[in-house]
């Protein structure tokens, strides 16, 4: 039961981070991908410790336009999963650590 609470809490934390990231200081109305680079060292604290099921890690360079027409650029990690098509911004998972399990998410997002 505690494991599910941890996963729900991590998903809530991630959701809040995404909401804050994309709505502060103004809501993005357009996003354009400027570049995608595989496993960059630009953001090492985000992409280190890759789980076995993650195939590749990309860093996306993005340009956003806000409601008030302000242009901003930012980077986000994107992952691909072995045996799956498409890209994902993050994954939540359960990992075994010795005789117990714990929840985690990747890439690590610092709020």
Map the helices and strands.
Blueprint: H1 2-23, E1 28-38, H2 44-47, E2 54-66, E3 71-81, E4 91-97, E5 100-106
Antiparallel strand pairs: 1-2, 2-3, 4-5
General description of the model:
This protein is an alpha+beta fold and 111 residues long. It has one domain. Helix content is 23%, strand content 44%. It has 2 helices and 5 strands. The protein has helices at residues 2-23, 44-47, and strands at 28-38, 54-66, 71-81, 91-97, 100-106. The strands form 2 sheets. Strands 1-2-3 form a 3-stranded antiparallel beta sheet, with no helix packed on it. Strands 4-5 form a two-stranded antiparallel sheet. The longest helix has 22 residues, at 2-23. It is globular, with a radius of gyration of 16 Å.
Instruction: Report the strand count.
Output: 5
Q: How would you state the average pLDDT, rounded?
A: 75
Low-confidence spans: 1-5
What general form does the structure show? Answer: globular
The neighbouring-strand order within the major sheet is 1-2-3
Instruction: List SSEs in N-to-C order.
Output: HEHEEEE
Our Rg estimate from Cα atoms comes to 16 Å
* Main beta-sheet strand count, sense and barrel state: 3 strands, antiparallel
Write down the domain tally: 1
The DSSP helix count reads 2
Q: How much of the residues is beta strand, in percent?
A: 35-45%
Distance between the termini: 26 Å
Query: Structural class of the helices, strands and pairings?
Result: alpha+beta
- Helix content estimate: 10-25%
């Amino acid at each position: 039961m505690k494991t599910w609470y941890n996963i729900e809490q991590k998903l809530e934390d991630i959701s809040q981070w995404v909401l804050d990231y994309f709505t502060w200081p103004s809501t993005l109305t357009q996003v354009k991908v400027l570049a995608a680079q595989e496993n960059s060292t630009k953001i090492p604290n985000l992409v280190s410790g890759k789980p076995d099921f993650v195939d590749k890690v990309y860093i996306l360079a993005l340009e956003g336009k806000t409601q008030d027409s302000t242009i901003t650029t930012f980077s986000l990690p994107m992952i691909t999963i072995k045996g799956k098509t498409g890209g994902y911004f993050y994954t939540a998972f359960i990992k075994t650590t010795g005789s117990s399990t714990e929840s985690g998410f990747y890439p690590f997002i610092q709020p």
